[in-house]
Write a structure and sequence with these properties.
Layout: E1 3-6, E2 9-13, E3 17-23, E4 29-36, E5 90-93, E6 104-112, E7 131-138, E8 144-153, E9 158-167, E10 173-185, E11 190-198, E12 201-209, E13 213-218, E14 231-236, E15 246-251, E16 257-263, E17 269-275, E18 282-284, E19 289-291, E20 295-300, H1 304-318, E21 332-334, H2 336-339, H3 345-358, E22 362-365, H4 387-390, H5 394-402, E23 407-412, E24 416-417, H6 422-426, E25 446-447, H7 453-470, E26 474-477, H8 499-517, E27 522-525, H9 535-538, E28 543-545, H10 552-563, E29 571-572, E30 574-576, H11 589-596, E31 602-604, H12 612-634, E32 636-641, E33 648-654, E34 660-667, E35 678-679, E36 689-694, E37 714-716, H13 717-722, E38 725-726, E39 736-743
Parallel strand pairs: 21-22, 21-31, 22-23, 23-26, 26-27, 27-28, 28-29, 30-31
Antiparallel strand pairs: 1-2, 2-3, 3-4, 5-10, 6-7, 7-8, 8-9, 9-19, 9-20, 10-17, 10-18, 11-12, 11-14, 13-16, 14-15, 15-20, 16-17, 24-25, 32-33, 33-34, 34-39, 35-38, 36-37, 36-39
The protein binds (2R,3S,4R,5S)-2-(hydroxymethyl)piperidine-3,4,5-triol (DGJ).
(2R,3S,4R,5S)-2-(hydroxymethyl)piperidine-3,4,5-triol (DGJ) binds near residues 366, 376, 480, 526 and 548.
């Protein structure tokens, strides 16, 4: 039993963690504990209460107990205007204009299995794999109710959280802020790990002490954004990869979000995750409900790597869906960096033909195949093939490509609309803009109003036709701008605050429909690279193009950052041409392959222009990737050395049973008299013996390395874990090595 109820104490036990809440004598739901696994006894008894002064005491309790204040009590889900002056989970305006929500515990329920959320992505599980706890809170005066949902996947150390807000009162309530998760810590000295970035340079990690005051990250861009990712960790000050207390929080939401942390006057910490409150105002009429997006939560006392591992497993196995979840994804070639907009049908067929000869499995036709789309100024919205450019119909083109022995995939950007498009001329009211104002352009395009049902239905039909006509088995769903001028012609003036969330709900509806009508199609998400790289999108698109930056060295840090919260199987990675189009850097083909193998692995260059030797190497890369595919996709991932320190990035994929591992090493540059880089190998069996071998890509790679490890020797798992081995040195800038470690039975 993962959920244990003892009178007024609710305890959730997972394999290695415990979570506890308690209803106090005044019917307030307190947060009692979340952390290392412990017993079911009342942890709130260990808390200390005192009269803090200037902290409000609820009526009439304040007459006889000045130590009781919501301002200093750890609560499970706070209201507003009740004497708690910290950041609050829910703020609402009542019909009389007052802004107060005072929650009281009102009951609970337990269900078998994991709850689902109507219209929103959520973790799913078999009935016997999960349990759900629902706790009801109520504001007695207004009738507003909050149903706190806890999905417990005991074996995976995962607890999911969401809230359903219901108005049981007679009058409207205006929600102004509604977080999905609140977590209060009574004590602890934490650091916040978050991920910031920009287009072409996503997922930079930052680790900052939680200081007095409020720290926050978020997005008001309509998309989860390149700038901040909706995944964070809270770690004890001295926590490292394999030691220390760490918490992970992944908001399954692809729109505007806010993650806030406050350290208060008495050093208590509060975390909130949910929809951003800036552009949010939701009118809840009597009897109406609003479901909030889900947060996936995990804890480990054994360091950051374990939190990552739990996040990887839950997203890979219980968020990603469909036939591609377990199946090996096709190794693709995308024509974007090979041609950009300048191609003809014959050019594409030629790339596909060359690619098929090397063993590539899927050809993806990127932007520029439709309407009058010769550059990024026109045509978005006109999903009608440009037959003049292609030299034939879409159906004929895809057949010609498929007949080369390679599958066909296609790029779309359904949420974009160009002013210069037939769709815009026919339906200017479908574009997101404020009446009588000129809208903000970005990439010279506007946004289609996905909050509208007619737009959603039109896109479902249009994209279905594209898929059917092209026999595509892969769709790249791109979105190349952030949203502003937030306004929908379909919403009344007082409902415009609902636009941003309704847009995301509309997007999810379209994706849900298309992915269920075309279950055999692999959808890859993309937001100009990682503009919408979040667990919400991964529910529909099991992989997402990680960044428009394809430089192998820059990708090291982008992929390093992404690995903290997201599985390797979700990271779209390609080998592109050199000099690299974003940075001009020249890296060896083997280094680009090593980097791309820390993701979905594909190509994005003009194969026809490569030398015979390079083509041979590509054939070999494909064979190597297939050989290690299961290890990469389903193995446990460890960050061994960071791209942000030293001159070498090292990472590992370990077989969950400890039978084998693959170590990847990429040097940032060659150094004179360099300091040896030591790789400690995790996830092996201490008492088993292992042999190390160097994975060769081409004949130029030396048989014997200048110095470093002697391959072929047999070493124990415990020695590899405790002492590690020195990785081969670099003799050139940007050199990469892969070292395969296999159990050797006596
Ligand atoms: C942005 C994507 O990230 C690129 O890969 C490419 O598809 C372009 N859009 C096409 O416009």
């Amino acid at each position: 039993m993962a959920i244990i109820i003892n009178k007024d104490i609710f305890t959730i036990q997972t394999k290695n963690s415990t979570y506890q809440m308690k209803v106090d004598k005044y019917d307030v739901l307190l947060h009692a504990y979340y952390g290392e696994k412990t017993d079911n006894s009342d942890k709130s008894l260990l808390y200390y209460q005192a009269d803090r002064g200037f902290s409000g005491n609820p009526y009439p309790i304040g007459k006889y107990d000045r130590a009781y204040s919501l301002d200093s009590l750890p609560q499970e889900y706070s209201g507003f205007g009740t004497g708690d002056y910290r950041i609050t989970a829910l703020r609402a305006q009542n019909m009389d204009g007052s802004q107060v929500v005072a929650w009281k515990y009102a009951g609970y329920g337990i269900e078998k299995g994991k709850y689902a959320i109507p219209g929103l992505p959520a973790v799913y599980a078999e009935k016997e794999e999960a349990q759900t706890l629902i706790i009801q809170l109520k504001d007695i005066d207004t009738g507003l109710e909050a149903f706190l949902y806890y999905g417990v996947l005991e074996e995976l150390d995962i607890i999911t959280r969401t809230v359903k807000i219901t108005n049981q009162g007679k009058s409207d309530v205006i929600l102004q802020k509604a977080a999905s998760l609140q977590l209060d810590w009574e004590y602890g000295d934490f650091e916040l790990l978050s991920f910031y970035g920009r287009h072409n340079m996503e997922m930079n990690i930052q680790r900052q002490a939680i200081h007095h005051g409020i720290q926050s990250i978020g997005s008001v861009r309509g998309i989860s954004s390149h700038q901040y990712n909706p995944f964070v960790m809270l770690c004890e000050k001295d926590a490292k990869e394999t030691m220390g207390s760490c918490y992970g929080f992944s908001l399954m939401y692809s729109g505007e979000f806010l993650i806030e942390v406050e350290k208060d006057q008495i050093d208590r910490t509060r975390l909130l995750c949910g929809i951003h409150s800036d552009n949010f105002q939701w009118i809840l009429q009597s009897k109406e409900s609003l479901w909030l997006p889900e947060v996936i939560m995990t804890y480990s006392q054994n360091g950051i790597a374990n939190v990552s591992k739990n996040m990887h497993t839950i997203i890979r196995e219980h968020v990603c869906r469909g036939i591609w979840k377990k199946k090996r994804r096709p190794i693709l070639i995308n024509n974007w960096e090979a041609t950009y907009f300048k191609f003809t049908g014959d050019v594409l067929i030629n790339i596909a033909k060359e690619a098929a000869k090397l063993g590539l499995e899927l050809f993806v036709m990127d932007d520029g195949w439709f309407g009058k789309r010769e550059d990024d100024n026109t045509g978005l919205g006109d999903w009608i093939p440009n037959e003049k450019k292609l030299g034939c119909t879409l159906k004929e083109l895809s057949q010609k490509i498929i007949s080369q022995g390679i599958a066909f995939g296609i790029w779309i950007e359904p949420e974009g609309i160009s002013e210069d498009s037939d769709l815009y001329r026919a339906h200017p009211e479908w574009a997101v803009k404020i009446p009588n104002r000129k809208p903000c352009l970005s990439r010279n395009q506007l946004v289609l109003d996905f909050s509208r049902k007619d737009v959603q239905d039109y896109m479902i039909e249009t994209i279905s036709n594209v898929i059917k006509e092209s026999s595509a088995t892969y769709i790249k769903w791109d979105f190349n701008r952030a949203i502003c001028d937030k306004f929908s012609n379909c919403l009344a003036a007082d409902k415009q605050g609902e636009f941003s969330h309704r847009y995301v709900l509309g997007l999810y509806r379209v994706l849900e429909k298309l992915t269920s009508v075309f279950p055999e199609v692999l959808f890859e998400g993309c937001g100009g690279g990682g503009g919408r790289f979040d667990a919400g999108m991964m529910y529909y698109t099991p992989q997402i193009w990680g960044s428009d930056n394809t430089d192998a060295i820059e990708r090291l840090s982008i992929q390093y950052g992404a690995s903290f919260g997201y599985p390797i199987s979700a990271m779209g990675t390609h080998i592109s041409a050199v000099p690299n189009h974003q940075t001009g850097r020249i890296t060896p083909l083997s280094t680009r392959a090593c980097m791309a193998m820390a993701g979905t692995f594909g190509y994005e260059l003009d194969i026809a222009t490569l030398t015979a030797e390079q083509k041979q190497e590509i054939k070999k890369q494909i064979a190597i990737f297939k050989k290690y595919y299961s290890l990469i996709q389903f193995g446990d991932y460890y960050r061994i050395s960071s791209p942000l320190e030293g001159n070498c990035t090292v990472w590992e994929f370990a077989d969950p049973e400890g039978k084998e591992a693959l170590i990847s090493v990429v040097y940032h540059h060659v150094q004179a008299n360099s300091i040896p880089v030591r790789a400690k190998v995790y996830g092996l069996k201490d008492n088993a013996m292992y042999q190390l071998s160097l994975q060769k890509y081409n004949e130029k790679q030396p048989e014997k390395l200048p110095y470093g490890f002697h391959f072929g020797e047999v070493i124990s798992g415990i020695a590899l874990r405790q002492i590690g081995f020195v990785v081969p040195n670099a003799v050139d800038d940007f050199q990469a090595w892969q070292i395969y470690i296999k159990e050797k039975r006596p």
